[in-house]
């Protein structure tokens, strides 16, 4: 049972990784949907968008062919509105609360309309924003992910000069390195970063890692304020025997490689087990399948009622032919000649509700054995605890602690995004960046 | 099965749906297709001295994603040779003897020319004549079309010329480009016309091209006012129709209703307000002749539901309900009510009432759905919220009379009752 790369033809790869949410084919098609929007007052869709995009307004602008105005409305609230339109789990955000749901009618395809405007803006490089006069203030941001870029954009618009320190060679953070390839392309991510920085006043220094190439103390000394948007990094270990066998992979690493190295060079097994049932697990499972794995099984220790992924995402995996085993918790990985051969799982059942009312899985004593040649771990990610604690930042198991002003315990150091919340969506990180920028602007003014 | 057969001035047609005088009735090819599709009759595209058309000729108004809500043209009367038209009319009458064939006319402005044209047309075997006093472009410069329709004296004179000669029933088609259609309508009656039809198109500018800066339709960098028609003009047409149906001089004549008729419902409305049949142009220019199937079918089903056996059972039925403002019952009062089970929390009623009416709707914030309810004491019963609500019968207007008896404005004033008490 081999782990192989180059399993498919170039056309097959192309097809398997093409856009799963294709854009509108034409202006007319967009207008039909845009004209369905009721232009709700105090619209529920806007309230459910973490960045509070004025959705009825931007859709109304599409109906009047004011695409530029519509793009401005979106980007003004969410500078990654282009990327978000492709990656947001809209069924639980904006579209999930569209009033059409209450009429048992399909909601307005808000994300698709958002994409209609923003893609044009990015493709035509519309200069939608202008910087205010220079304030002479400088802010350092660590991490060029959604949180860092969003923070940088707001600050630069206000005339603050921003320098971003990014350890990777490209910007975009997990948008560029983590999100499934059938949602966004690397080219789009690059265009998006360029679109954001085209405002001016934002300098990204690549290959600069906090804790290695730069220190927090340096940044504090050289800038008026520092914003940490370093995200979460490493995959959670399972802490079970056999985890070091060849064929056991970390989902983030696996996805990163797909984005970085090209589909044909990524090896997958014939029989793959994916552990966990969050967005990362779904992305890993579906992409393993799309790379040519014969059988992909998702193993989750709770039931569907508790799964972190949405129904829409789960269906994505199901449609790709992935199996799901509920109430199974990995116990041990077995191998031969250093290679994975089997995954043994404890069969679980839901116990009595705990104080929070949640029923935790408990072992039944039975086990099941899966014959596999590859195991992908997607049981959550772990924050950069060592980096955070070595800089004397207060934290909750590595998640940086901030107050209501986005400030950490260290003077003039602010933080937001995944490194604070432990990992949510891109759109939450963008909002965190905006909040951070507002807090920094207040801080600079009051200094 | 209701009986849809129509009898207009003795001219019989299997249903009350005629095609108005326009491009769809311009030649044998179209008219035969229309008859095959089931149209009850046609008014042949206006004949007169031959003219030359320009291009482009049409423009339109799109609204809220719907195309051609309003349509506009700068076309003239028939630009085909008269003898070909006459030959084709005769052929159509021969092939479909059960359908109504009316021929629209606009002769040069002399008694002789009118007489000559009438004689030629009557030879075709057509069933009636329609006088085009409405064409608002091209012809007016020569003292024809709307120039006639806008001057009751001239209109009366031309009708008299026609009546001297015509042996077929004569319908006079009125222009809406006047303060009131009644004076010309009365003049036509005095001139002896047998029936009236209305409306022709309304002078308009549909819009300006934002790239060329030239209004539509575009003719080599210039434009002119065009005639407006289609769904957008229906309310105006209905109003004009009603004034003709209520005027003691014009009311006794049969009226053919025109202007924005697109569905059986529109047709029923025209007929309830006094039209004996309807004519259609823009709707077929948009969808083709096939729409007549649903028009017949829909009217039939409606008549069955209401228990109407023939068209005469409902023609004109709504005319008496249009009265004068002074005669409305001031004691009638309604207030809005929101059905919370149906409400989808879009807030459209709230913002309309809050910004533009009487601040009669409560908003209770929620996440993400707000709750809206009516402040009954503030509600003036204007109906706006109900009109903007996107959900059928979610907002209803509940009757809460101010007093039992009927009280109109004149009586209100006479009694010196207080103003602005609600
Ligand atoms: C597999 C996967 C799939 C996902 N799919 C979706 C999805 O479909 N839709 C969605 O909305 N969200 C998705 N997410 C979540 C989303 O990607 C994140 O919530 C979002 O990117 C967080 O933004 P951030 O800026 O806080 O962190 P990140 O995007 O992680 O950015 C952090 C940046 O900081 C840099 N950095 C880290 N440490 C240092 C350091 N010491 N020095 C310098 N730079 C540093 C990193 O290289 C990175 O560029 C997914 C996440 C994963 C892991
Ligand atoms: C392109 C076009 C040409 C027309 N030509 C004539 C005409 O020659 N004679 C006439 O009496 N009315 C003419 N009309 C007016 C129509 O007969 C009709 O009165 C008007 O369009 C309103 O009806 P509608 O809303 O159904 O289109 C024309 C209308 C259009 C759109
Ligand atoms: S950013 Fe995401 S949640 Fe917000 S409106 Fe756009 S697609 Fe919806
Ligand atoms: S809830 Fe739906 S209909 Fe209402 S504004 Fe938002 S997208 Fe439009
Ligand atoms: S307009 Fe209708 S659906 Fe919308 S909030 Fe008001 S009552 Fe509810």
UniProtKB/TrEMBL annotation, chain A:
GO terms for molecular function: iron-sulfur cluster binding; oxidoreductase activity. InterPro entries: 4Fe4S_Fe-S-bd, DPD_II, FAD/NAD-bd_sf, FAD/NAD-binding_dom, Helical_ferredxn. It comes from the Bacteria. It holds the Pfam family Pyr_redox_2. Residues 28-58 form the 4Fe-4S ferredoxin-type domain. Coiled coil: none annotated. This is NAD(P)-dependent oxidoreductase.
UniProtKB/TrEMBL annotation, chain B:
It holds the Pfam family DHO_dh. SUPFAM superfamilies: 4Fe-4S ferredoxins, FMN-linked oxidoreductases. One of its GO terms (molecular function) is dihydropyrimidine dehydrogenase (NAD+) activity. InterPro entries: 4Fe4S_Fe-S-bd, 4Fe4S_Fe_S_CS, Aldolase_TIM, Dihydroorotate_DH_cat. It catalyses: 5,6-dihydrothymine + NAD(+) = thymine + NADH + H(+); 5,6-dihydrouracil + NAD(+) = uracil + NADH + H(+). GO terms for cellular component: cytoplasm. Residues 334-363, 370-400 form the 4Fe-4S ferredoxin-type domain. Its EC number is 1.3.1.1. Keywords: Iron, Iron-sulfur, Metal-binding, Oxidoreductase. Signal peptide: none annotated. Involved in pyrimidine base degradation. Catalyzes physiologically the reduction of uracil to 5,6-dihydrouracil (DHU) by using NADH as a specific cosubstrate. It also catalyzes the reverse reaction and the reduction of thymine to 5,6-dihydrothymine (DHT). Heterotetramer of 2 PreA and 2 PreT subunits. Belongs to the dihydropyrimidine dehydrogenase family. This is dihydrouracil dehydrogenase (NAD(+)). It comes from Spirosoma foliorum. The gene is preA.
